[in-house]
Amino acid sequence: MSQPLPNAALLPPGIAGPQPAAPVGASNRIADAQAVHGPAFGELLARTHSVSFSRHALERLQRRGIELGEQTLARLGDGVDRAAGKGSRASVVFVDGTAFVVAVPKRTVVTAVDPEHMREQVFTNIDSAVIA
Q1: Cβ distance 104 to 90 under 8 Å?
Q2: 51 Cβ neighbours under 8 A, 6+ residues apart
Q3: What single string gives the DSSP state of each residue in 73-114?
Q4: pLDDT tens, 27-36?
Q5: Which of 2, 23, 38, 61 measures 20 to 30 Å from 48, CA to CA?
Q6: b/e string for 12-24 if b means 16 or more Cβ within 10 A?
């Protein structure tokens, strides 16, 4: 009969007690159990550059006639990535003269301002500006 294993919760930090021996052939099963089953790398990369739009931002885009193409969205996502890399929480991202106020941690565009309405705007509560 083997000796009982000590309770790991009762051991001081940094000290590991004896580990139970794995049965023969178990190494592959352990590796399989530890493998992460999630989205493919390409899907994660695509999500990284994606941004969402608040209802207010969608209304502003429609009212001001701001068109968003695939290239614009990609540049906006890149700008948000750059702001996030610097630790920003709220940023104005400029893409081709259009200003997008973004809640960086949530990757959500809060509002959008086209060049025609830019002179009337004051951006408050932001901690960064990015030209993308």
Answers
A1: yes
A2: 73, 76, 77, 80, 102, 107, 108, 109
A3: HHHHHHHHHHHHHTT-SEEEEEETTEEEEEETTTTEEEEEE-
A4: 555 555 455 5
A5: 61
A6: eeeeeeeeeeeee
Backbone angles phi, psi at 33, to 5 degrees: -70, -30
Q: Which domain holds residue 113?
A: 51-131
> Tokens 């931002």 map to which residue?
57
112 occurs within a structural domain: yes
Residue 110 domain-assigned?
yes
Q: Is 42 helix (H, G, I), strand (E, B) or coil?
A: helix
Residue 78 inside a domain? The answer is: yes
Domain count along the chain: 1
Q: Is the pTM of this model over 0.85?
A: no
> Is pLDDT at 88 greater than 70 in this prediction?
yes
User: In angstroms, rounded to a whole number, what is the distance separating the alpha carbons of residues 52 and 102?
Assistant: 9
Q: What confidence tier does 12 reach under pLDDT thresholds 50, 70, 90? A: low
Between 70-85 and 41-49, two packed helices, what is the crossing angle to 10 degrees?
90
Give me the amino acid identity at 117.
H
